[in-house]
Design a protein that fits this description.
Length: about 200
């Protein structure tokens, strides 16, 4: 990873001014719904630096062991996966608490995950965006990408019910792609947001 430094220095580590906790734009949508594309577009368009954070980035880094067992400590569904996502959720308040603004893309698969995020991020400015997409289009994108299980995104919506766990602060439809109009709708709503938040602990 490249780092921009003006000149080598033997002085103390730079300490930025305290700006308080970071703000969080949380994108919730099915796999292949366009969350990553939207997150990168927002990151480019926003007037201040936002970190783009997703669990897929952790996976791509090679953080997870390759071994998978049906039972025991290497059991993926029953042991490794729940701990991995619990840790991912816990890293978000750490990043925001250091003053980083975040764009988080996620698939909130269980009501308990939404409740956990609400508790962990209580006190932060968290703005929850529902990313919707036609299921036939999600199927097409999965076939085109080739790196997703066919039917994964559809399962997130039809079986997991990821959009049924509570309200959103804003919603978009990416069935025809992440257009400039979609990005602008998010930016406009974000800039004019009020005080209430859909993810507030105890809401929904």
């Amino acid at each position: 990873m490249s780092q921009i430094r003006p000149m080598p220095s033997s002085g103390p580590e730079p300490i930025p001014p305290d700006r308080g906790p970071g703000r969080v734009i949380l994108l919730n949508g099915a796999s292949s719904s366009g969350k990553s594309t939207l997150a990168k577009a927002l990151q480019r368009a926003l007037d201040e630096p936002f970190l783009h954070v997703s669990s897929d980035q952790f996976v791509a880094s090679g953080i997870l062991p390759e071994r998978r067992d049906r039972h025991g400590p290497f059991a993926w569904w029953e042991a490794m996966r729940p701990r991995f996502f619990d840790g991912f959720h816990r890293c978000l308040p750490a990043l925001a608490g250091a003053g980083n603004d975040l764009i988080v893309e996620h698939v909130i698969e269980f009501p308990a995950w939404r409740d956990s995020l609400a508790r962990l991020l209580e006190g932060f400015d968290v703005w929850l965006v529902g990313v919707h997409c036609d299921l036939t289009e999600i199927d097409r994108r999965e076939r085109e990408r080739g790196d997703r299980r066919i039917g994964e995104g559809r399962t997130h919506v039809e079986v997991d019910g990821i959009h049924m766990f509570g309200p959103y602060d804003h919603e978009v439809d990416t069935s025809t792609g992440v257009s400039a109009a979609v990005v602008e709708s998010v930016l406009s709503a974000w800039r004019s947001r009020g005080e209430g938040r859909a993810l507030a602990a105890g809401a929904g």
